[in-house]
Amino acid sequence: MTKQKEKMNQPGLLLTFEGIDGSGKSTQATMLFHRLLKEGYNALLVREPGGTSISEKIRDVLLDIKHQNMADTTELLLYAASRAQLVAEKIKPHIDDGVIVLCDRYTDSSLAYQGYGRGLNTEFIKNLNALATQETIPDLTFVIDVDLATAAKRASVDDPDRMESEKNAFKKRVQNGYHAIAEQEPARVVLIPGEEEVDALHEKIWELTIPKLELLKTSKDQ
Ligand SMILES: Nc1ncnc2c1ncn2[C@@H]1O[C@H](COP(=O)(O)OP(=O)(O)OP(=O)(O)O)[C@@H](O)[C@H]1O
Ligand SMILES: [Mg+2]
Description:
By secondary structure, this protein is an alpha/beta fold. Helices cover 55% and strands 12% of the residues. It has a five-stranded parallel sheet with strand order 2-3-1-4-5, sandwiched between helices. 40% of the residues are buried. The structure holds adenosine-5'-triphosphate (ATP) and magnesium ion. Residues 19, 21-27, 154-155, 194, 197-198, 201 line the site of adenosine-5'-triphosphate (ATP). Adenosine-5'-triphosphate (ATP) binds at residues 19, 21-27, 154-155, 194, 197-198, 201.
């Protein structure tokens, strides 16, 4: 029996991973997911955009390199639509069931990319995020912070998608956006200097996760 299955009526957790393309989000999200399973927790790993059949179709539209003429507002709304479906279909039901949900990109990506990166109104994006997520706010958000050169080296792929093919000035604005978000919400958002090797970063992330797991146990013991 997993630790959480002992009492199923307590909500789980939502942990999200953020950062520019190639920062190491998916690597760390996958490592934390496997660590949680090994420790006996009930966990789910999902990614954005995507994670449901509808959201994966929206992902294809968003990332298609042919869609260079996509309007910024279309991009914002498609990300929100993909998120709304993922939250309704997977994230919220699992959290309600006591599961620890790990999400590879979430609301802060819209703020950083469409807000700070594209220049759309950040207050409007916060409201749209609240609508799309039914106000499901992460318990903890890890922003993996690496410089653009490191990210480019790590992400080097032969056929970049539409977002990956953006120029450096855009990526720099996105990175600055993540820094601003971390400053504005220090209780939720942790900036992880991401230049270190994979295992060292995982240990840092694990140490930061433990207090949240303790909270989960405390609420379950009541
Ligand atoms: N700390 C690290 N040191 C060196 N290489 C790393 C590190 N973390 C990840 N990598 C490597 O960098 C590449 C990109 O990592 P990963 O896919 O996790 O990044 P990502 O942030 O999820 O990228 P994307 O935004 O494109 O999905 C992978 O080949 C991965 O093995
Ligand atoms: Mg990834």
